[in-house]
Metal dependent phosphohydrolase
Amino acid sequence: MNNLTINGSHTEEDVYTTSPAYIQITRGIFDRLPKFKLPFPLHASYDDTLKPVFGSRASDRLTREQYEVLSRMCSQGMLFLSRRDIEAYKDLLVENLDLAVGDPCLSGLERADILSRGITAKAGAFLDQPSPATLEAVHAGVLALTGCLHADRAAINPFFQLDGDQGLPWHGFKTMIFGLAAFQKIYEGRQGRRHLDDLALGLLLHDAGMTRIPGFVVKKPTSLQILEFEKVKRHPAMGVEILRAAGIQSVDTLNCVAQHHERLDGSGYPQRCKSGEITVLGRIAAVADSLAAMTTDRPHAKARGLAECLHELARDRRRYDNTGAKALLVFVLTELS
Ligand SMILES: [Fe+2]
Ligand SMILES: [Fe+2]
């Protein structure tokens, strides 16, 4: 592109590197567009201006010839999308997370939103129907996210601005973000990518076993009876069973699931493990899971602020790993404010 000026007020550099008014349709994106019916209007650059091209209206259907013309324009770097249509573009990327990771036109918050929607949808599909195929989709989504973090640790920050529902996929996602932030802060890049990947997958799916607990117990607004709680206590082991059956072999991933309710003083469940018996990732999972629960509206408790909950967890040295809780607290107070 030569000196393309958009709206007459931006230089090419500031338009395309900071907050672009138009986003270039790369070959990778074009090839994933539904053929013959575009999900958003496209614009082509002619000389120094951008003009709508055919297929711009929702009712338009493209002919094969028109599709091929657009394909050629794309190869020549002439095809763009207006930022006004960013939501439809984001919907496309939610289905193609690998493209979202490499798109320089997205802000960190937009990329975080796309990754969270894509990963929670895949996690939801796995929790509904655990299988090697649904697990593979979750794994690909997780790798897209950890790839971003591996390249730039600060890429985790915008995830803290996102909000979700009270369902299991979002709870898993929130736990994953908290745990990854703690892990990054503790190790400051001294741990390899594999640990990040294994931890992320374990945290995202840590409550998979809850899908086997009767709904009336999970949603009960009052305290659980002893027998009901005994049922709930089985969910970490059931989660391990579900993940193993789907093909997960990583001990680190399975430990996140098995140990997220263990507490350092032996008061947790299901094994009543004590400090030395709980792995580092199991300890991080415990802090991250409790924090995700405390900062979410639950049947018996209102959501509380992130820093307030972290102060509480960091003070509770008897039950929670202080290194993880403090690392996350320092991260929230210094890097998010
Ligand atoms: Fe749990
Ligand atoms: Fe949980």
Residues 107-335 form a domain with the Hypothetical protein af1432 fold (CATH 1.10.3210.10). The chain has two domains: 12-92, 107-335. The CA atoms of residues 143 and 197 lie 7 Å apart.
